[in-house]
């Protein structure tokens, strides 16, 4: 945020513009409102996992705060060290599709890209921990049967 309260526009490589991501995800306040303070979702380009590993590659982080979801720029420390509950790894065409949908229904786009295998989705915590952190609505919206039909 800038001093005037406007969201700053910050280009962030192929992942896109942080300000546009913030505006897009603000439209899903209800979906993210159940996330526990400190819950984190990371989005990284597939190239970060290449031969060289590219430790330190850009990573977009969606972090739950007391004031709602905040979109932050981060560095990808490597798969084993990344400090997120959920990690999404997207190829370049998927990143482009997500950026193109930031003015529309970006979560629907993410859901479709996950189904098509263009976004790899890794739960970095056990399901009970994700449940306790409030991920049920988000996972449902992304097309994952969180607790199954029989609760």
In short:
It contains 6 helices and 5 strands; from the N terminus they run H-H-E-E-E-E-H-H-E-H-H.
Can you describe this structure?
The chain is α+β, with helices and mostly antiparallel strands and 151 residues long. It has helices at 18-26, 29-32, 92-100, 106-115, 127-132, 136-141, and strands at residues 40-45, 57-65, 68-76, 86-90, 119-123. It has one domain (18-139): Nonspecific Lipid-transfer Protein, Chain A (2-Layer Sandwich), CATH 3.30.1050. The protein contains 6 helices and 5 strands; from the N terminus they run H-H-E-E-E-E-H-H-E-H-H. Strand 2 and strand 3 form a beta hairpin. The chain starts with 17 loop residues before the first helix and ends in a 10-residue tail after the last helix.
Widest sheet, order of strands? 3-2-1-4-5
CATH fold title: Nonspecific Lipid-transfer Protein, Chain A
Output the structural class. alpha+beta
What summary fits the major beta sheet? 5 strands, mixed
- Summed over residues and divided by their number, the pLDDT gives a mean of 84
What is the CATH top level name?
Alpha Beta
In N-to-C order, the SSE pattern is HHEEEEHHEHH
Shape: globular
Per CATH, which architecture?
2-Layer Sandwich
End-to-end distance: 41 Å
Spans where pLDDT lies below 50 across 5 or more residues: 1-11
Helical fraction equals 25-40%
Number of helices: 6
* Computed Rg: 15 Å
> What share of residues are in beta strands?
15-25%
Number of domains: 1
Count the strands? 5
């Amino acid at each position: 945020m800038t001093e005037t309260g406007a969201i700053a526009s910050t280009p962030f490589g192929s992942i896109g513009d942080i300000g546009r991501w913030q505006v897009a995800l603000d439209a899903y306040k209800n979906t993210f409102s159940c996330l526990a303070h400190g819950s984190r979702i990371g989005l990284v380009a597939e190239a970060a996992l290449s031969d060289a590993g590219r430790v330190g590659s850009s990573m977009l982080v969606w972090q739950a705060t007391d004031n709602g979801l905040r979109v932050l720029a981060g560095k990808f420390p490597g798969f084993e060290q990344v400090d997120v509950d959920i990690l999404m790894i997207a190829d370049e065409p998927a990143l482009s599709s997500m950026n193109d949908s930031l003015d529309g229904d970006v979560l629907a786009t993410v859901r479709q890209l996950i189904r098509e295998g263009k976004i790899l989705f890794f739960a970095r915590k056990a399901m009970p921990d994700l449940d306790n952190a409030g991920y049920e609505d988000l996972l449902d919206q992304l097309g994952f049967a969180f607790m199954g039909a029989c609760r």
